[in-house]
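Milestone M4 deliverable, item 7.
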Amino acid sequence: MVAVGNPFGLGGTVTTGIVSARGRNINAGPYDDFIQTDAAINRGNSGGPMFNAAGEVIGINTAIFSPSGGSVGIGFAIPSNLAKSVVAQLRDHGHVERGWLGVAVQQVTPELAAGLGRDKAEGALVAQVTPGSPADKAGLHQGDLILGFDGKPVHGMRDLTLRVAETKSGESVLVQVLRDGTERTVTVEIGRLKEERVASAGGHRTESAAAATVKGLALAPLTAAARERLGIGAEVKGVVVTRVEGDAPIQPGDVIEKVGDAVVASPADVSKQVQAAEKAGRKAVLLLVNRDGADTFVALPLRAA
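Output delivered:
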């Protein structure tokens, strides 16, 4: 492939190279899907076309990774298919619209996969569902593992994010999910993304139980005093982690809301569910944790009984 540009004001310049990788994430935004190349993309090349051997435009030169500011053989281009979609929307509407599902998802690690009882780390794990969102109306649940979207497999979190964003609002798509060990398909009518969309939760429970230590986690009831001390609102319910021993993937101040599929209201509830998972021979158990106001899943390693 070749990259064309105007580096350093020299005029039209062409460099050659190979496509090193596709689907690169360089943390430029939530929709990163870059082509990586070793063709030199120096200052001034950004915005120039990237051609394949047949003379077809396959990307737009965008960025480089370099400790010195010059090309070191790691350049990135926006794929032409993505650029064409954006250009068409700007031409037709004057702005870019992206699809909206209404879930907060997280990447499935090997530890989380073990907690889900799966051998392979794949899919996108639903950590939160926004009330009133397309996902909520379609019946998607917190803890669902999304394995497919619109007939295409979801290998990871970014697969889902990109495919939802590229789907037009108002379109109905089939979403394959794993819930309680059973795969099922739900139909979702995709909405239009607005930047002010935020996830929220509701409800309240009064805690009354003694503190306990479970798998190196010192747990305590989430009392009114604890809420005030930690700055936790009444909408969060569960058991607070006060101390962590060892390298458990939990932090002091985290609130454990669920162990597996069970809602927990006391340290005793947590202990009961962890023991049940151990007796069942599980290598890990999933914990739904509220951390700094956001829900996330973590896998707590177990030693099978």
